[in-house]
Amino acid sequence: MNETAHSPAPPRNAVLHAMLWPLRALKRLYHWVVGWADTRFGTPALFVLSFVEASFFPIPPDPLLIALCLGKRRRALWFGAVCTVASVLGGILGWYIGLALFDAARSVIESAGLAASWFGTAQSAAGLDAQQLAALPQAGGVTFYPDGLFYTVKQKFDSNAFLAYFSAALTPIPFKVFTIAGGLFEVSLTLLIAGSIAGRGARFFALSALIFAFGDKVKPLIEKHFEWLTVALVLVGVAGFAAVKYLL
Are 68 and 42 in contact (CB under 8 A)? Predict the structure, then answer.
């Protein structure tokens, strides 16, 4: 008898369910985070996450802000204010990291394997003449090449520093690249603060205000489709990095 002919077939959509398992775990994490809104740890956690995200941490505070606002809708605007203030302060820290601590930041970037994407590569300057090579931005002993994020950010600063800060603060563009680059290239700290308040304030207050006004209608949708919304947030974050070079 051929035993393989009678072996059970794999469960239907088993591969899809396996791929979605991490996202289902995130959904459980979401429910756990929502519970923070009723404890004394919710606001400090939001403050810390918003602060470090603006200077060096990769995860944006928006999911936690949404969870806390949904968990305690009447305090949604307060959470938006906390998120904004912490993010502006974190942006200031990022500026000082670029200004005074770039050697340490450079080591972290290189250790994470991000040097090519952040600083660029010499190959991208192969077609430049001697004058153009001499005009490449430099700071902290590093030359920034045309295919790197810092090179593109420097161009945005030279064009309109306030608009560059504001755009990065408002959109999924990686804000920390702009805050660190701002200090590195000694772009006005005042413009950073102004652009951060305008951009981050608009972003986080708009989000918290929407939940304050429509939370009861939005909450079931988020809980039902949380896995796919998480995927969408990740894709938006990835697109934000691409936007620095190709959309701005």
Answer: yes
pLDDT 10s digits, 183-209: 999 999 999 999 999 999 999 999 899
Tokens encoding 2 = 């051929």
Per-residue pLDDT band for 80 (boundaries 50, 70, 90) equals very high
Residue (of 86, 88, 65, 87) closest to 77 by Cα position: 65
Tokens of 65: 């802000």
CB distance 218 to 211 below 8 Å: yes
Q: What percent of the chain has pLDDT over 70?
A: 73
The CA distance from 199 to 171, in Å, is 8
Is the whole model's pTM more than 0.70, yes or no?
A: yes
The larger pLDDT score, comparing residue 48 to residue 238, is at: 48
The domain locations on the chain are: 19-117+163-246
Distance CA 191, CA 164 (A): 10
Please check whether residue 172 is in contact with residue 240, taking contact to mean a CB–CB distance below 8 angstroms: yes
- Which residues, in sequence order, are CB contacts of 115 under 8 Å at separation 6+? 109
83 exposure class (CB count in 10 Å sphere: 0-12, 13-18, 19+): buried
Radius of gyration (Cα) for the chain, nearest Å? 22
Buried-exposed string 194-215: b where 16+ CB fall within 10 A, e elsewhere: bbbbebbbebbbebbeebbeeb
